[in-house]
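As described in the Methods, two query proteins were run sequentially through the folding procedure within a single session, without resetting any intermediate state between them. The first query and its resulting structure tokens are shown here.
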Amino acid sequence: YVYGTASGTMQGGGTVNIFDGDEVTGTVGNDIWNCTETQYWIPGADYNFAAVVDATVEAPASNNGMPTTLTTIADDATTGNMHLKDMLYAEATVDGDDVTVDYDTPVNFTFQHLLSKVHFTVTSTAQGDYSHEVTGIKVYNYAEGTYTINGGTWNGNGDPVAVTFADIAEVSSTNGTTGVSNADMLLVPNAADFKVEFTVNLYKSTTKEGVTTKTLLSTTSYTGDSAKTVSTDLVKGNAYNFTIACSVGNPIQFSVTNDPTWSTQPDVTIQ
């Protein structure tokens, strides 16, 4: 959805709104996209444009209809990988000195992600019939939010909640040396500490043997018994992979120090 103003040479002067959340459609890879509302270039006019994907826009009249804040939209799909819909924003300006009678250059929007993408990967040192299962992965202290365009800052919107990620099962060094990941979640960047919680189970075949002796998330040690603080701040436009590295400790091994020897006895003569 596109917003835009023109200023400088139109009748009455000043700044006028020419696009007000009008839909722009096209094909990825095609340089030309068209708007549902047709507007023509005015020679000598200065232009400001903004484009928004998947956000609720606040555009007060004092800003000539241009967006000032964006609010996240909940993903109401029954299935899917995202906790929120993706949220994109772009700006563009065109200098009036460049706008001539035959000006025909498309407005170039270079979008930026306003959310952070997060998923979890589980690795395991278990071998043979042993494997790990990680369940109940939750990120706490998460809240939907409002993004202020001037300054590029996020503010929490509502009480923090827990976001639940998909479980990750049957990971071992035999079948998952590079790790097994769950689906991505799109979260509002949070500069404050947030908390992660998960449970780790160790299986031999289909029998649960217990909880792993050691798990790691980034550089912080976890037991899986309670939520722990993660020191990494989420930053907009960054994709994060948090690794839960599971270990079964050391296998039972045996050592043979020497072979048994025969005792030498006197020769026995049979007559």
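Immediately afterward, the second query was submitted; its sequence and tokens are:
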Amino acid sequence: MSVSAARVDLGAIRGNVETLKERAGDAAVMAVVKADGYGHGMLECARAAVDGGATWLGVAMAAEALQLRQAGIDTPTLAWLLGPGDDWAAVAAVGVDLGVNATWALQRCAQAATTTGRPTRVHLKVDTGLGRGGATPAEWPDLVSAAAKAQADGTVEVIGVWSHLAYADEPMHPTIDAQRRVFDDALEVAAAAGVEPSVRHLANSAATLRLPGTHYDLVRPGVAVYGLSPGPSVGAAAALGLTPAMTLTSQVALAKQV
């Protein structure tokens, strides 16, 4: 029998979300519970986060979104990493919003609407400089134009426009303002195409804690939900009002001087 154990304090999760909600100001909080709640247990942490004031949940994979719904968790949820082999209609059918960063993904969402019988809720992602997911500024006009047409056709509903910061854990890094400018420009391009989302979101954990100018309508803290500082430049977890949720314990088997 193992003498090692990982214990998760759900009260710490709730308290951390309450702290993040205070830091978010008028913005809503999306608690990111991907990767089994960063190894803390997705379902339990999702419930605790909602109890703490999160009004959104964020996951990466289709299976994670479906697991939340199968467990009876009906909080608004965004799943942002579906691939060509995923069942987009199955995720849309349970009321989960889908991240879209290319026209092919938008087409999958439109196709899902023919199965579900209602518009698929989407969040369009623009790459503002991280170089990971998202349509580049050059691709963005075509994506929002296609989204506007699909919305007019009744196959999608654009709920959000979003992006991700590269260096939010270094609050004075020059890329932060540069990415904000690209994001604001992308919002203007979207509005000109007739796409005006109800939620604009850019801030991760570090930005939620230290960069109020990036909060927009919604923030997406991840590691901070679990009581971890997103980086040494942001500050120590305790100083940020965060409590680590996981404690690892074991029995000492050997101690010696060498």
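The two ends are 30 Å apart (CA to CA). We note this only descriptively and draw no conclusion about the first query from it.
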